[in-house]
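It is worth pausing here to work through a concrete case rather than discussing structure prediction in the abstract. The textbook approach is simple: state the sequence, then state the predicted structure, then interpret. We follow exactly that order.
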Amino acid sequence: MATEYNAINLSQGFPNFPVDEKLTDIVAELAKEDVHQYTPMAGYPPLLTKIAALVNDSYQRTAQTETEILVTTGATQGIFTSIQALVENEDEVIILDPCYDSYEAPVLLCNAKPVRVSLNDDYTPNWKTIEAACTSKTKMIIINNPHNPTGKILTKTDFEALEKILEKFPKIILLSDEVYEYITFEQKHISVHTRKLLRNRAIVVSSFGKTFHITGWKVGYLVAPEHLMKEIKKVHQFLVFSVNSVAQAAISNYLDIVSVDEIGDFYQEKRDYFRQLLSKSRFKLLPCEGTYFQVVSYAAISNENDVDFCKRLITEHGVAAIPISNFYENGKDLHLIRFCFAKDNATLEEAARRLCKI
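Step two, the predicted structure:
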């Protein structure tokens, strides 16, 4: 609809500003070199070494390049592969709503049962409800931190509650989707990498696409203990075998000259500017602790359901957003919509000008 009505697209989660010229220069040079054949299945060896160093620098975790790291065709393939490898027929997988839509499909394809558990209305987890959903059939819990679509991050108390649940259910595996790990603001997110009680039974999912604004490259990576990674690699081998070789080599070289510590500051400026632009609108802005998404309430503007409101936002006002009800199994509608602020300032300014007129 955004394309059909020539609307400003703040719906999908992709940046519209240029990629770092240092990275594109690296790609241009590598295109002339001998990096065009298959890499080893787990990843381009220099990149695996750089990922291990990145995880160690960021979280003080030592990950073994040979056995605990896997480069994937984006985070989504990493999520799919992990679930396909570890979830079996009639297992149950707990998914916290609202959630990214790629969690449920691989569970269903395993002939397993997705168990959707809603977060509280302020998007904090209700650990009593989550624990009550755990059974002898529960094989996996999926968490997303920082959280899409809400921008929330889990606290130390949340992790302590999660650890108690997993202590009671020792067979449950944790899948931690941390693709926005470097896009956090006042508080840095707590990674499963730092939780010694969790990481030996967890898969951590990361994304170079999100971190370096190169979503179309579709390069991510998994970190997991060897006993889990061994099973994940069995699926990965027959799903994609290996990931784009030029992209892997380029990211490997780029990691030598870029600091991930600057990414949060870059997006915090975007967040603060977008929030400032919308401060005189009739939308109520919810807290945004991480990611490049801003959730707003339109309750002061309309009583429409969020899907209809988003359609009218496009057709009458020329701005595209995502209705939050689409992230719930039951279509729960709290009159909330999601904007993506990973856009250049001119785009944000024009979008805000239109939104402030509503």
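Step three, interpretation. The longest strand covers residues 138-144. Residues 21-254 form a domain with the Aspartate Aminotransferase; domain 2 fold (CATH 3.40.640.10).
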